[in-house]
Amino acid sequence: MFKRSVVLFFVLLMVAGPIIVQAKEAPEAVLKRCVDDVIVILNAPMDVADDQADARVAERNRRLFVKADQLFDFRSLAMGALGRNWRRFSNDQKTEFANSFSHLIAQSYFARMEGQDFESVSIEYLKTEFLAPTRSGIERADVPTELIHNGVKTPVAYRMLEREDSWKVYDVIIEGVSMVSNYREQYRNSFNDSPEKLIAELKEKLK
Amino acid sequence: MKKTTIELYVGLFVIIGLLCSAYLVVQLGGLKLTNKDRYTVLAYFSSVSGLKPGASVEMAGVAVGEVARISLDKERQLAKLELSIDNDYIFSEDVIASVKTSGIIGDKYINLSPGGAEFDLEPGATIFNTESSLDIESLVSKYIFSDKE
Hints:
The structure holds two protein chains of two kinds. By secondary structure, chain A is α+β, with helices and mostly antiparallel strands. Chain A has seven helices and six strands, in the order αααααββββββαα. Chain A has one domain (27-206): Roll (Nuclear Transport Factor 2, Chain: A), CATH 3.10.450.710. In chain A, strands 1, 2, 3, 4, 5 and 6 form a six-stranded antiparallel sheet that branches. In chain A, helix 2 runs antiparallel to helix 3 (53-71). In chain B, 26% of the residues lie in helices and 34% in strands.
């Protein structure tokens, strides 16, 4: 009886295994879907002379943030940015920090997007590089892309990891410079500050 | 009888002298007889231009190891580095390894930036966060020749 159930289990595994694997979306596909959506939102016509322009920008930014939240793993991003400091944070503090940090990043990007034109953006996706899972069991992949805007070709690589059956971005490398590494170097200097102070500083910047 | 004693002393001094110079050669030449107190981790880079084997691996400016071997991964066509790290140091797995230059035109070295993940980097593991050396020339030429108004 036991033997039979073991055999049955393996047969099930062999049959079901490939189906499960196929059902999962490839990192490149996830990335492409989200980035395309973002570009559509950005290219939606907006009448700046309208008196409700501010409200419209706010609404657009809210929609962009929802998209970004689907694509980015903000907790990993915050962990990467804080580096060693992350270990000093309690679980609640980690969540609070990750939450505020995601809004800070979004805010700084929204500020840059003002008045830019995204009509001519084209993105070329290059071959995804899968990395062997580490001890934590998390699989990672690098998706190198080339972004062409106003005739300038910029290499942008997305580092993705598998989280809850979907691929999420945890770092963006633009022209060989990593975003997480950049924030980590900044946070390294505040090793003396308490987690409460770091969160308070972050919230101050958001105002 | 007396001559034998003198010769014995001379021989002894020669041997001591030889031992001293052997010690100096090993110490100053950086020759490693044993590799026991170190472990190796791997890191892949798209470019390690200018980096030489034996370059130091630093964290916060403190040397924690050295670059043991630089080779080209034939299949992925990436630079594969074997970093030999002192056993005293243990890093989390999301440590960032980047190729840096000491000063403006100084030697290249590997800088490790500590991460916060709860899992540690095991001997033989691969560092997945890497930053290659910045190619200033290609950056400059890109923005000079880009047709921006």
